[in-house]
Specification:
By secondary structure, the protein is an alpha/beta fold. It has one domain (7-219): NAD(P)-binding Rossmann-like Domain (Rossmann fold, 3-Layer(aba) Sandwich), CATH 3.40.50.720. Helices cover 39% and strands 18% of the residues. It has nine helices and nine strands. The chain has helices spanning 16-26, 43-46, 64-67, 81-84, 87-103, 127-140, 164-176, 191-204, 214-219, and strands spanning 7-11, 33-38, 51-55, 72-75, 111-115, 146-151, 155-156, 189-190, 209-213. The strands form two sheets. Strands 3-2-1-4-5-6-9 form a seven-stranded parallel β-sheet, sandwiched between helices. A two-stranded parallel sheet has the order 7-8. α7 (164-176) links the parallel β7 and β8.
């Protein structure tokens, strides 16, 4: 049975995965409206007929009324230590805002879907992985109706901002991708693959809680 994504809300809508996701949702006949929570009005998103932009400078100000009535909630929000500028700012974006967004759906019938990361572990000595793991742990403890957590490896795609290390890694991978077997769990995936997996999970997941690791993202049909 297909679960219709009738009314979706997305944070991280202007990021690599968020844009890919919204474009795919916009093409679904069953999807009636997409609320993109953004800090600034986005011209590209305004070209998509089903998208309504909710401009909010501080996502921590999102409240129960803002999210009411959505069948699906997609969290594609994430940063890097370099872009965030400090560990405190990174924690604010990747943990506090995402946790707050998830909290708003506690006890509701909304299907919540999160882009996390391969290696997420609340006990990890690596700060990035530890924050991702702490967020996953927090979400597990909520009373969400249905949860999907995606754990992609390196994301391939054109970002609006430059990430020099990721860009160099992408170029190297593109030259050597034919040597990387599909069974390699760290194989990079495209933003479109991650977005597609989110759409598939939103429509077909029957379990209350599912993790989609990098291999599942690679193989999602």
């Amino acid at each position: 049975m297909i679960n219709s994504i009738q009314n979706a809300i997305v944070i991280g809508a202007t990021g690599l995965v968020g844009r890919a996701l919204i474009k795919q949702l916009n093409e679904l006949s069953s999807c009636e409206q997409i609320t993109a929570v953004v800090r600034h009005y986005d011209v590209e998103l305004s070209q998509l007929e089903k998208v309504h932009q909710f401009v909010l400078e501080d996502f921590l100000l999102l409240n129960d009324e803002d999210v009411h009535g959505h069948t699906h909630a997609f969290s594609c929000l994430g940063s890097t230590l370099k872009k965030a500028g400090s560990k405190a700012q990174f924690y604010n974006i990747d943990y506090e805002i995402n946790a707050h967004f998830a909290d708003l759906f506690d006890g509701l019938e909304t299907h919540y879907l999160l882009v996390s990361a391969l290696g997420a572990n609340s006990k990890s000595p690596i700060f990035y992985n530890r924050v991702k793991g702490e967020l996953e742990q927090h979400i597990r403890e909520l009373g969400l109706a249905k949860t999907s957590i995606l754990q992609p490896s390196l994301l391939l795609g054109e970002r609006s901002e430059q990430r020099l290390l990721e860009g160099a890694t992408q170029r190297l991978y593109q030259k050597m991708s034919h040597l990387v077997p599909d069974s390699f769990k760290y194989k990079p995936v495209t933003a479109e693959q991650v977005a597609h997996t989110m759409v598939v999970a939103a429509q077909y997941q029957t379990e209350k809680f599912e993790i989609y690791d990098n291999l599942r993202i690679q193989k999602a049909k």
